TrEMBL record, chain A:
The SPT4-SPT5 complex mediates both activation and inhibition of transcription elongation, and plays a role in pre-mRNA processing. This complex seems to be important for the stability of the RNA polymerase II elongation machinery on the chromatin template but not for the inherent ability of this machinery to translocate down the gene. Gene3D superfamilies: 3.30.40.210. SMART domains: Spt4. It comes from Apiospora saccharicola. PANTHER family: SUPPRESSOR OF TY 4, TRANSCRIPTION ELONGATION FACTOR SPT4. Residues 14-91 form the Spt4/RpoE2 zinc finger domain. It is found in: Chromosome, Centromere; Nucleus. This is Transcription elongation factor SPT4. The keyword Nucleus applies. Keywords: Centromere, Nucleus, Transcription. Its main location: nucleus. CDD domains: Spt4.
Automatic annotation (TrEMBL), chain B:
Residues 843-1017 form the Spt5 C-terminal domain. One of its GO terms (molecular function) is translation elongation factor activity. Residues 1-172, 358-399, 705-727, 790-945, 976-1017 are annotated as: Disordered. Keywords: Elongation factor, Nucleus, Protein biosynthesis, Transcription. This is Transcription elongation factor SPT5. SMART domains: CTD, KOW. PANTHER family: SUPPRESSOR OF TY 5, TRANSCRIPTION ELONGATION FACTOR SPT5.
Length: 111, 1048
């Protein structure tokens, strides 16, 4: 598991995935893609996709140590995701084509 | 990964009603999964299970497997155990659970076949507890348990088989269904089912880890969260792995949860352990255990208010503009940035200096800083000449990296740097935006303003007594009356339904006001219709359509914004201004208020344009002049409350509300546009009916304008509206009269009221008021009972066009005439009176006399002429008289020259004969010309519609003028005649007046003629001269004239 820690100095580069709301730095999104949504978002090495599918506007950070056991994770519907830092709320809208690509309504970004 | 859910799902679907906090064991199981994941040893079987998604039969399979692979599992578990020894105690505990549970399941299935049926995973707390105990036991006696299991194997299998048989079909179907339902969701990893589970089913149970609030340094919440993450990762896989499952913060600029982070863990010690020695967080202070019920609230997310172009926001980010109002122009696709425009705060000079200083010492680097807080640039006007590197034809500028458009700074700003809620833009601020519009035209979008105001006043107010309905929640549909309101809780007394008579408490959230069609309501909430009052005509859901009282339009508002209205048509005033008030917008513009909003009003100005204005833009309110008079296109007198109809145009008909100079504001019921108010020119309306049955002379006599030579002149037409028939109070009112004709003949009475032709007389004999034609009454001295003949002259038409002097003269006149001993002698007798110098005032009247020229009077005049012949001027007068009243005389060649000569000055000789006063007399006499002038000087101008001013002026203000002028004219008798004809003279008079500083607009309007006649005010003197060639006269008057002008 990659290091999820982001030093405070890097906080300004944080972005949240609009689908799973995981919070990572832009560069990590670029290098690794979204750990939960990479299957269909394909953020890896795609700066543009990162721009459109992740948001700098989010609130409420959640550290998930144990997504499976945590009620918080369950409540936030994060329990299937990997360990990491998530946001409670991510502002922004996915591009329509992506949304239709994820042909179901399971967006988490506005729980 | 998702199997626990899968298990839950079938449970759920199969035994819907007794859903039990299955999540508990779900999480346990998950825990296992996660643990297994890390544990290499057992990972494979687990993972296979995990990987097989949506295997809802998994339960059964597992059972089977459980039996089949009992030993394997046990072995695995043993292995686990070995490893776990080193693991964190909690992990171990969990593992223990699982292991034990797996086994226990098997055991149990032997004993409780029913329960074991499908939801073997469905354990309740009791089981959990048991599990713990058993776990302990099992720990110690693991081998024994295994043995026991083996012994039971056979029975187990049998049991299972039977159960399987029983459920096989059902389960397969069920699985099929579930697969169909959820299977495809799997494609999107990790999403899918989570969206399907209603969140209420995810509510925390006691089995879930607890959440504790931990104090931390405000503003450092995020850092702490990341620090925790870091620590979690550091410790992961080590023996002191952290026991916390999650930690989160709900900080944020507006959050009330600042300075707190929340940590989820099974035990408090885990938290202490996890946060030990961490910066910015203080686990040693009191930890706040969050109640289970409150846990979801912690994670509640407020829906972000959506921004729309046109909305008002406040800026947070460019620090210089912090707090400034801005308007959203556009929003980027992903909704994260908005393009806003706002008023730039530029400090041209100051900034330049700062730059210079910087470059000079090179130390201070404050290139773009706000510098000394620049004063808000109140004017949105951009001054390009001073500081623009680049100009563009489109009025867009680039300056210092900022973009400016049409005077506004335009910038893309992240939404988080905008304050969206509670913007509360004031009208002043908004006005600045509006006035900066591209063409400078004020175009406040009151609608968007209202919208943002609405946003800011979302809260609904309930008052005791409101009839409310619960539309949400368990009490849905209950109707009651609010009895008490406390914060968000409304106590209501239920009036209908099963709960009738009970008192319940409901949060306002699920409450709405209830109205019935026909209710009279007032909009109290912040919609743009605020303050409107109307009747409910339709209700659908919480939208109520009402018909407003004021404009009779249908508006739809939310019921929360309504209140039962106690006042009818309550609205309609803003400060001192009320509907239909006449207000002055600028010196040349007046308007009638046709709509009043909360902070602004709509005004229909004299040109028929509607304007949105604020009270501050109104110069003053013009008092309603009850006595305002004007002449309609037929020359008939119109006053407020008369009903007139537009001639041509739209042919609107309405009741006069205001008369202002040449404009009438009328109210019609035919339309509700502008509240039924329309504006028209007086010259463009015709009387339909006058108030109180006043009959217009115009109706009886021929059109005045055709008789008025002055009015005939085309250029004179506008300002020289037909004179009024009557001015001010009729002198007849209050007089004692006897009735000459009719059933009441001979009776004595007092005149209570008059119209043009009739008088209402209160009889002395019996208390009754009758209406009698004025011609049928004889005025008597109230004391002596003597007949006062002079009153005849005031009969309708008496004040015809010839009547320039104004009514002030009239009193004199009546006095003089009436009092003169000769008065009783009839017209003949009066003639002398006329001649007498004392009748100087009458000079002005002379034309009137002519006009009087009813058949009856004429002879008298003629007689007068005869008698007067003595006087050289008599000749003149005669002619005059004839001309005025007696058209034939007019037409006669003899007379014609007279007027002509006057007009041209050729008459001057004749004039000269009349003496110096002549010209003056003419001046004074000029019916229209003279009249307006005084009017103007008197300062009454305002009150008069231009057209009217000619007339009313003539009567009110002119008097002084007339007096002045009249007095000098001893020979006034002669003079008047000319006056009547010499339209130019008035022109002369008029022209100066405007020149004298009165509004040019006025001048132009009311007296185009004068302008033509004597454009230069200075020339007025000359025009005078022209008119009154008599130098003597001139000299004499000049002084008199002087002061008058000054007055002007």
């Amino acid at each position: 598991m990659a290091n999820n820690f982001v030093p405070p100095g890097q906080h300004r580069y944080l972005r949240a995935c609009m689908v799973c709301s995981i919070v990572m730095t832009t560069s990590r999104f670029r290098h690794e893609g979204c750990p939960n949504c990479e299957d269909f978002l394909h953020l890896k090495n795609d700066t543009e996709a990162i721009e459109s599918c992740t948001s700098q506007v989010f609130e409420g950070l959640i550290t998930l140590a144990n997504p499976a056991r945590s009620w918080v994770a369950k409540w936030q519907r994060l329990d299937n995701y990997v360990q990491g830092v998530y946001a409670t709320k991510v502002s922004g809208q996915l591009p329509d084509e992506i949304r239709s690509a994820i042909e179901d309504e399971g967006h988490v970004y506005i729980p | 990964m998702s199997d626990p859910r899968d298990h839950d799902q079938p449970d759920d679907s199969e035994e819907e009603e007794d859903f039990n906090p299955a999540p508990a064991d779900a999480s346990d199981d998950e825990g296992n999964g996660a643990g297994d994941n890390d544990d290499d040893v057992e990972s494979s079987p687990r993972q296979t299970r995990k990987a097989s998604p949506a295997r809802n039969e998994a339960a059964d399979d597992e059972d089977d497997e459980g039996e089949g692979d009992e030993e394997d599992v046990a072995g695995a578990n043993d292995d686990d155990e070995d490893e776990e020894e080193e693991d964190d105690e909690e992990d171990e505990e969990i593992q223990g659970h699982r292991r034990k549970r797996a086994r226990r399941k098997d055991k149990r299935s032997a004993f409780f076949e029913l329960e074991a049926e499908v939801d073997d995973e469905d354990e309740d707390e009791e089981d959990e507890d048991d599990a713990e105990h058993e776990g302990f036991i099992e720990h110690t006696e693991a081998g024994e348990a295994e043995q026991f299991a083996r012994e039971d194997d056979a029975r187990h299998r049998e049991l299972d088989r039977r159960r399987e048989m029983e459920n096989d079909m059902d389960l397969e179907q069920e699985a099929e269904r579930l697969k169909k339902q959820y299977g495809n969701k799997r494609s999107a990893r990790g999403m899918g089912e989570s969206a399907v589970v209603p969140q209420r089913l995810l509510l925390p149970s006691v089995d879930d880890p607890s959440i504790w609030g931990v104090r931390c340094k405000e503003g450092k919440e995020r850092e702490v969260v990341f620090s925790i993450m870091q620590r979690i990762q550091q410790k992961q896989g080590t023996k002191d792995e952290l026991g916390i499952t999650a930690a989160f913060e709900r900080g944020g600029p507006n959050s009330v949860m600042k300075g707190l982070i929340y940590v989820e863990a099974q035990r408090q010690t885990d938290i202490l352990q996890a946060l030990e020695g961490m910066l910015n967080v203080y686990p040693r202070t009191k930890l706040l255990l969050v109640d289970i019920k409150e846990m979801p609230d912690l994670l509640r997310v407020q829906k972000t208010p959506t921004l729309e172009p046109g909305a008002w926001v406040r800026l947070r980010r460019p620090p210089k503009h912090s707090g400034d109002l801005a308007q959203v122009i556009d929003i980027t696709d992903n909704g994260l940035e908005a393009r806003v425009k706002f008023i730039p705060r530029l400090d041209y000079g100051l900034r330049d200096d700062a730059l210079a200083a910087t470059t000079a010492d090179g130390k201070r680097k404050r290139p773009m800083g706000p510098g000394p807080k620049p004063p808000r640039s109140c004017s949105a006007r951009w001054r390009p000449e001073r500081d623009t590197p680049g100009t563009s034809p489109t009025n867009n500028w680039q300056y210092n990296g900022d973009e400016f458009e049409k005077g506004f700074q335009v910038k893309d700003i992240k939404i988080q740097h905008l304050t969206i809620k509670d913007v509360n833009p004031t009208l002043e601020e908004v006005t600045k935006f509006a006035s900066g519009g591209e063409d400078g035209v004020e175009n406040i979008d009151l609608k968007s303003l209202a919208a943002s105001l609405k946003d800011s006043t979302i809260n609904v107010t309930y008052l005791p007594g409101d009839v409310v309905e619960v539309y949400d929640g368990e009490q849905k549909g209950v109707v009651g009356k609010a009895t008490n309101v406390q914060g968000d809780i409304v106590t209501m007394e239920v009036v209908a339904g099963d709960l009738a008579g009970q008192t319940i408490e409901v949060p306002t959230k699920g409450l709405r006001k209830r109205f019935r069609p026909g209710d009279h309501v007032k909009v109290i909430g912040g919609s743009k219709y605020r303050e409107e009052v109307g009747m409910v005509v339709k209700i659908s859901e919480d939208r109520v359509t009402l018909l407003t009282d004021q404009t009779n339009t249908e508006i739809t508002v939310f019921s929360k914004d309504l209140r039962e209205a106690s006042d009818i048509g309550g609205q309609g005033s803003l400060g001192q201004y009320e509907m239909t008030d006449l207000v002055q917008l600028d010196p040349t513009t007046v308007g009638c208020i046709v709509k009043i909003d909360r902070e602004s009003m709509v005004i229909l100005d004299q040109n028929g344009d509607k304007r949105h204005v604020m009270p501050s833009q109104i110069a003053n309110k013009l008092p309603r002049r009850k006595l305002a008079v004007a002449a309609d296109r037929n020359g008939a007198e119109i006053r407020p409350d008369d009903v007139v109809k537009e001639y041509g145009g739209m042919g609107r008909q309405g009741k006069i509300v205001h008369i202002h100079r040449t404009y009438v504001f009328c109210h019609t019921n035919a339309t509700n546009e502008n509240a039924g108010i329309f504006v028209s020119k007086v010259s463009n309306v015709a009387t339909i009916s006058a108030k109180g049955g006043r009959i217009n002379a115009a109706a009886n006599t021929s059109d005045l304008s055709t008789m008025n030579p002055a009015a005939k002149r085309p250029e004179a037409k506008n300002n020289m509206g037909p004179p009024k028939q009557m001015f001010g109070r009729d002198r007849l009112i209050g007089q004692t009269v006897t009735i000459k004709k009719g059933g009441y003949k001979g009776l004595l009475g007092r005149v209570k009221d008059t119209t043009d032709t009739h008088a209402r007389i209160e009889l002395h004999t019996k208390s009754k008021i009758i209406s009698v034609a004025k011609t049928d009454v004889v005025v008597r001295d109230s004391v002596s009972g003597n007949v006062i003949k002079n009153y005849d002259s005031r009969k309708p038409g008496a004040f015809g066009m010839g009547r320039p002097g104004g009514d002030r003269a009239a009193p004199d006149w009546s006095n003089a005439g009436g009092r003169t001993p000769m008065a009783s002698a009839g017209s003949g007798g009066r003639t002398p009176a006329w001649k007498t110098p004392s009748a100087g005032g009458a000079g002005g009247r002379t034309p009137a006399w002519n006009r009087n020229g009813d058949g009856g009077r004429t002879p008298a005049w003629a007689a007068a002429d005869g008698s007067r012949t003595v006087n050289p001027y008599d000749g003149n007068r005669t002619a005059y008289g004839g001309s005025g009243g007696r058209t034939p005389a007019w037409s006669s060649g003899s007379k014609t020259p007279a007027p002509d000569s006057f007009g041209h000055g050729s008459k001057t000789p004749g004039y000269g004969g009349s003496g110096g006063s002549d010209p003056w007399g003419s001046g004074s006499k000029t019916p229209y010309g003279a009249a307006p002038t005084p009017g103007a000087s008197g300062g009454d101008t305002w009150g008069y519609t231009p057209g009217a001013s000619g007339g009313s002026g003539a009567y009110d203000a002119p008097t002084p003028g007339a007096g002045l002028l009249g007095a000098p004219t001893p020979a006034a008798m002669n003079a008047p005649t000319p006056g009547a004809y010499s339209a130019p003279t008035p022109g002369a008079m008029n022209a100066p007046t405007p020149g004298g500083g009165w509004q040019s607009g006025w001048g132009a309007d009311s007296a185009p003629t004068p302008a033509a006649a004597a454009p230069t005010p200075a020339a007025s003197g000359f025009s005078y001269a022209v008119n009154a060639p008599t130098p003597g006269a001139w000299a004499a008057e000049t002084p008199a004239a002087g002061p008058r002008y000054e007055d002007d």
